[in-house]
């Protein structure tokens, strides 16, 4: 073979090899970039981070070395979370499912923290510690957290039966019978009463709605999502802050004063009661089309003594306990009073619901 022909063949071979290598390099770099986007934490975000596990919620081990191993193992699993693990998202964060083994799973919420980082960080860990101390059968327990300058993750027990919103409104769910709905009403009232009256400092939830009420293995309700929670001083009756919450559940005074009070939570709870009774969201399209609201519509049916027309169609063929139905309508009406001072406390609501009730145990 002439030397010139060999040179051409060599040149073509080298160019082909370089072309293939460049393609492989580009593909590798694109994959790395894609995988970095898919992961919710990358190594650059971990600097200065702190992992805290509340032993009573996460681990029974009393050994420091064992707890450190658990923290390292948990952190490695957190780093492996990606977009395929997302189970929910909202304005205050994204929620991921973290499966530890066949029997254990957690819900991990990555917070979207806005505003002044310095101001947020000052009380951030103190608030998380307070949240970790909250133990009640109707509140989703905080099991731990990971806090870093660029990443803040809250770790909760995973509630296997989803949210009340999904149970009431999803076509893929079997719905809730009357007994289950009354248990939810009572359980949520107990959880809120605990936050308002028994926690020190007292806690205002500020975002009570059906999607923030989760259902555990036994279909018992658990209050979740303290991304909007405001901690009160023991002697304070309200907190002045930026209006936050969810349209349809907010009390009217929020728009006038911007004051977050326990009575605001009571109003939101009243809206949830109407949702349990009617099977309608406060943002139902039928209300928007008619220029009315869930609260206004139900109050009008009560004034006309036509409450049976407001009952969820899924319940109308059931034999409903009349006194329980009347009780929920009455409690909801009191909670939704336009004057916050006339609304009952959540402790009073619990007493009303527990009177002569088979679900009070």
From TrEMBL:
Membrane topology, as annotated: Single-pass membrane protein
Instruction: List the protein's name.
Output: Protein kinase domain-containing protein
A Pfam entry, by short name = Pkinase
Q: Name one GO cellular component term.
A: membrane
Instruction: Tell whether Nucleus is among the UniProt keywords.
Output: no
Q: Which domain of life is it from?
A: Eukaryota
Keyword entries, A-Z: ATP-binding, Kinase, Membrane, Nucleotide-binding, Phosphoprotein, Receptor, Serine/threonine-protein kinase, Transferase, Transmembrane, Transmembrane helix
Q: Does the keyword Nucleotide-binding apply?
A: yes
- Kindly list the positions annotated as binding ATP: 109
All residue ranges annotated as the Protein kinase domain in the record: 81-358
Q: Which organism is it from?
A: Paspalum vaginatum (seashore paspalum)
Q: Which residues form the signal peptide?
A: none
Q: What GO molecular-function term can you cite, just one?
A: ATP binding
Family, as annotated: Belongs to the protein kinase superfamily.
Where do transmembrane segments lie in this chain?
6-31
- Cellular location of this protein? Membrane
- SMART domains cross-referenced by the UniProt entry: S_TKc (SM00220)
């Amino acid at each position: 073979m002439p030397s010139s022909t060999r040179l051409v063949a060599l040149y073509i071979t080298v160019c082909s090899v370089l072309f293939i290598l460049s393609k492989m390099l580009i593909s590798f770099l694109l994959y790395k970039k894609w995988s970095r986007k898919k992961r919710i934490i990358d190594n650059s975000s971990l600097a200065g981070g702190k992992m805290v596990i509340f032993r009573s919620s996460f681990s029974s081990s009393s050994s420091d070395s064992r707890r450190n191993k658990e923290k390292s193992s948990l952190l490695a699993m957190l780093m492996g979370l990606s977009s395929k693990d997302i189970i929910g998202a909202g304005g205050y964060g994204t929620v991921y499912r973290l499966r530890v083994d066949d029997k254990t799973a957690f819900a991990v919420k990555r917070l979207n923290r806005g505003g002044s980082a310095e101001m947020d960080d000052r009380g951030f860990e103190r608030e998380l510690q307070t949240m970790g101390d909250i133990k009640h059968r109707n509140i989703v327990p905080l099991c731990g957290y990971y806090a870093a300058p660029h990443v803040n993750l809250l770790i909760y027990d995973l509630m296997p039966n989803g949210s009340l919103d999904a149970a009431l409104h999803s076509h893929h769910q079997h719905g809730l019978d009357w007994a289950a709905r009354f248990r939810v009403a009572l359980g949520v009232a107990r959880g809120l009463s605990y936050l308002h009256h028994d926690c020190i400092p007292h806690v205002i939830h500020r975002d009570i709605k059906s999607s923030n009420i989760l259902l555990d293995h036994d279909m018992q309700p658990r209050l979740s999502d303290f991304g909007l929670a405001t901690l009160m001083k023991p002697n304070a009756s309200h907190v002045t802050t930026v209006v936050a919450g969810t349209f349809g559940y907010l009390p009217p005074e929020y728009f006038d004063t911007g004051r977050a009070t326990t009575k605001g939570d009571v109003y939101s709870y009243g809206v949830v009661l109407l949702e349990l009774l009617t099977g309608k969201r406060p943002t139902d399209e039928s209300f928007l089309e008619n220029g009315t609201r869930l609260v206004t519509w139900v109050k009008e049916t009560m004034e006309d003594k036509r409450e049976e027309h407001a009952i969820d169609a899924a319940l109308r063929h059931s034999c409903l306990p009349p006194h329980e139905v009347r009780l929920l309508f009455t409690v909801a009406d009191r909670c939704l009073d336009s004057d916050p001072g006339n609304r009952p406390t959540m402790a009073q609501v619990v007493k009303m619901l527990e009177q002569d009730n088979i679900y009070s145990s």
